[in-house]
Amino acid sequence: MQARPGRRARHVLELVGFRGLEAAVRAGSRRSAMRFATGTGRFAFDIARVRREVAVRNVLERLQPEGGRPEAESIARESYAVMTRTFVDLLRGGRLGDEELWGVLSRSGMEELKHSLTKDGGSLVVSGHFGNWELAIQGLRRLGVSIAALAADMANPRVNERVMRARRAAGIEPLSPRRDLRGVVRHLEGGGCVVTLMDQDARGKGVFIDFLGTPASTHGGIVSLAMRTGAPLVFGALVDEGDTYTLVPHEVWRPDPSLDEVRNRRDGAVRFNRYLESLVLRWPTNYFWAHRRWKTRPPDGGATPSAPRGEEPIRGGRGGLATSRVRNAD
Fold it and tell me: Total structural domains in the chain?
C-alpha cells in the first residue's frame, strides 16, 4: 500500500534529516559525537520542545520531586541528552574502536555479564528506555557474543532500513517481532542472545502491571517466549553518567513450575517492572520520560495486580525500590 502524499513528504524529510545526523556523528571521534548528541538532545527539549510537556508531566506525576516543576524539567531535560547519546551510539556502532569502547565501558564487568548470559546457552536479555542499552550490547558483541536485536519496525521504512544497516555494521542481527520470531528461536537455539526493550506500551494486548504507581500495559509475549524456549529471561541496564557508565547488577527470571502459564507470564512482567522501577528511582535522568509508557489505560480503572509468588505488591514513587549502586571498574 502506497503512503499518502503528506506522509511520503514527511518520510522524505525524515530521511534527509536522518542522513544528515548519520554524517555528523560518524565524521569524528566518539567523544565529539557525544558532545553533538548532548547538544542535540537539549535542543530538542529547550527549543524544539519535542514532547516536552509529556516528559515533564510524567516526571511530576510519577516521581513527585521535592523541587516541583523546576526539578522535573531538569530531570526531563537530561533524559533527552541520555537518549540522544544512546541513539548516536547505535548509528556509530560499526565505527566504534576497541580503545574508544573499553575506554568508557568496563571490560571486566562485561566479561562477567557475558559469562552469565552464555554459560547455559542462549538468553533473552531485556531492558527498558533507560540508560545506554546500545553501548552495552555492542560491548557484548565485541567480546564474541552472538547478538540479535528484536525491535519493532519504524514507521518510516527507509529510515528503518538505515537503522537495521547500522546494527548489521556493528555485527548485530536485526529482527522484527512481526516477521522474525522463527529467527529468534534459531538464534537462541544456537546459543546466542536476543535483546529487546520490554517497556513499550502494549496497548490492549498487554498485562497491566503497576509501574511507578500507575498501571502500565506491559508486554508479556517475551515472557511467554522464555517459557516456551527454556531460555532464561535476564533483566539488565547500563547507566549513562556522562563520561562514564555503570553496569548495574542484572537479574535472572525463570518460570515457577508450580504456576500455570498465565500466572508465570504475569510474574515475569511484574518482576521486570519492579527491576526497571528500582533503576528509574535511583537514576531518574536515565529514563526517557517523553516515552508514553502509560498511554493505555486499563478498562477497570487500574488496580495493581496481585504480587507474584506470595509477596506483597510494591508500588512506585519516591519511597519505592532502590538497588545497590555497583560500579564495575577495571
Answer: 1
Q: Would the pTM of this model clear 0.85, i.e. be above it?
A: yes
The model's pLDDT over 314-329, given as tens digits with 9 standing for 90+, comes to 333 333 333 323 333 3
If we measure between CA atoms, which residue out of 88, 110, 123 comes closest to residue 235? 123
Residue 326 lies in a domain: no
pLDDT digits (tens, 9 = 90+) for 4-43: 667 889 999 999 999 999 999 998 899 999 999 999 999 9
Cβ count within 10 A of residue 112 = 14
Residue 180's domain spans which residues?
5-310
- Residue 239 has which C-alpha cell? 547507566
